[in-house]
Amino acid sequence: MIKKYAVLLLLGAFALMLLPFVTEVTPFEELSPVAQKYVKDGPDELGSANLVSSVIVTYRGLDTLGEVAVLFIAAAGVGFMLRRRGDAKKPVKREASGILRSGTVFLFPLVLLYGIYIFLHGHLTPGGGFQGGVVIASGIVLLLLAGVSAKISGTVLHWIESLSGAVYVALGVLGIVLAAGFLDNRILPAGEFGRLLSAGAIPLIYSLIGLKVGAELVGIIDAMQKDEL
Hints:
- By secondary structure, this protein is an all-alpha fold.
- It contains eight helices and no strands.
- Helices cover 69% and strands 0% of the residues.
- The radius of gyration is 22 Å and the shape is globular.
- The two termini are 40 Å apart.
């Protein structure tokens, strides 16, 4: 009984803390000076049709680097906690329905292609490296659920994650040397506005983020799947 009252008391205190966010929030009637700068000058300065990509990849590129680093730490932590000790257990064979297996064989290439499309077109349409990487990882989950015979090479994942991360940081440094700042996309020609090969280095940066995120998430999924066997 005391435990229930304590839980109710904590929930009430938490609700009281959040109350000002509901009662005292006032809508913004105009953009902040920084946001006005992004909206006004972003398309001309960076050549990206998707203003969100301009902000995430270039103007606030250091924030994106931090997010990628957090995901890497999470993946490394999962791999460390689920690492095997001693003799590995024999794999348990999981049976999946024929419909799921047949559907997976058909859908997996499409899911993979869609993930690549999302991070290649992140400067033109909603999407980007994080979203594309998650879609690719979901395709791997589909393979595991269907029990399709596929081995995930930890070495390949390691190299994809390491090289994409290293090149991503290298592009950021090139932005300092060749342009106006870290991850400045103008180290490459801006191209024609609205085309696939436009927005300077943003498509390349998003592709690297997509590969890195996809490899890290697949590594987490693989570690968790092996731990259950």
